[in-house]
Automatic annotation (TrEMBL):
Gene behind the chain: pyrK_4
Protein name listed in UniProt: Dihydroorotate dehydrogenase B (NAD(+)), electron transfer subunit
Pathway involvement of the protein, from the record: Pyrimidine metabolism; UMP biosynthesis via de novo pathway; orotate from (S)-dihydroorotate (NAD(+) route): step 1/1
Subunit structure as annotated in this protein's UniProt entry: Heterotetramer of 2 PyrK and 2 PyrD type B subunits.
UniProt record similarity statement: Belongs to the PyrK family.
Gene Ontology BP, a term: 'de novo' UMP biosynthetic process
Keyword GTP-binding set for record: no
Cofactor binding note: Binds 1 [2Fe-2S] cluster per subunit.
Lineage of origin: Bacteria, Bacillati, Bacillota, Clostridia, Eubacteriales
């Protein structure tokens, strides 16, 4: 399967928290909240990196990425007017045709990134919808000011207690107060959220994160286990019904 990459011009690339960068590029593609792109630097990164869409505004596309290895470290060198290769949008995204009713957005760390575009789309679809954000970080927080514009309440938890509640985001979540939970973050956190939602009979959808090599379902690197067998996170997801995935 041929995968076509295109060059995109960098608008900005700034560190917004320790080892967390906001990368803005020019791109005209139509996107869905919860989709992702594969990004790479020609000659610098052998394998592309899957990065969730944080926000789309006119012809500008925003990504948040954490510096966790040599590939993402190379990204930090990008500056205005540089070029980055990308392909996307990829994946299914959140289904905004569903009636989520009272909804909790639950995220952990860099998993907070896709919640901004999701909150924007939900708010645009229904200005009166109850949308609350529950977010967990290790220490410092980011993206909260941007998200506040689109949600009713923000509940923050940090491991150190520097901001909000000291502990895990699952300590402050009450799924029984909502009709639907939409979740993105570390797998161990999402498993706990799913278990909590099942206990209260609350619908839950999760954005799975796996290592990916192609992003289009050809290489089978990113399979995850579901009640219907193994599924490709990049092609069949990354959004899955939490009652169907097996974590």
């Amino acid at each position: 399967m041929a995968i076509t990459y295109r060059n995109a011009k960098v608008v900005s690339n700034k560190e917004i928290s320790k080892d967390i960068y906001k990368l803005v590029v020019e791109d005209d593609a139509e996107i869905k909240a919860g989709q992702f792109y594969m990004l790479k630097l020609n000659g610098a990164t052998f394998l592309p990196r899957p990065i969730s869409i944080c926000e789309k505004s006119e012809n500008k596309l925003t990504f948040l990425y954490a510096v966790v290895g040599n590939g993402t470290k190379e990204f930090t060198k990008l500056k205005e007017d540089d070029q980055i290769s990308l392909t996307g949008p990829l994946g299914n995204g959140f289904d905004l045709e569903k009636e989520y009713n009272k909804v909790a957005l639950v995220s952990g760390g860099i998993g907070t990134a896709p919640m901004l575009e999701l909150a924007k789309k939900l708010r645009k679809r229904n200005p009166d919808q109850k949308i609350d954000l529950y977010v967990g970080f290790r220490d410092d927080v980011y993206l909260i000011d941007e998200l506040k514009e689109y949600v009713n309440e923000v509940y923050i938890s940090t491991n150190t207690g520097k901001h909000g509640n000291k502990g895990f985001v699952t300590d402050i979540l009450k799924p029984e107060d909502y009709d639907t939970v939409l979740c993105c973050g570390p797998e161990i956190m999402m498993k706990k959220v799913i278990d909590m939602c099942k206990e209260k009979n609350v619908a839950v959808y999760v954005s799975m994160e796996k290592h990916m090599a192609c992003g289009v379902g050809a290489c089978l690197v990113c399979t995850c286990k579901t009640k219907d067998g193994h599924k490709r996170t990049c092609k069949d997801g990354p959004i899955f019904d939490g009652y169907h995935v097996e974590l």
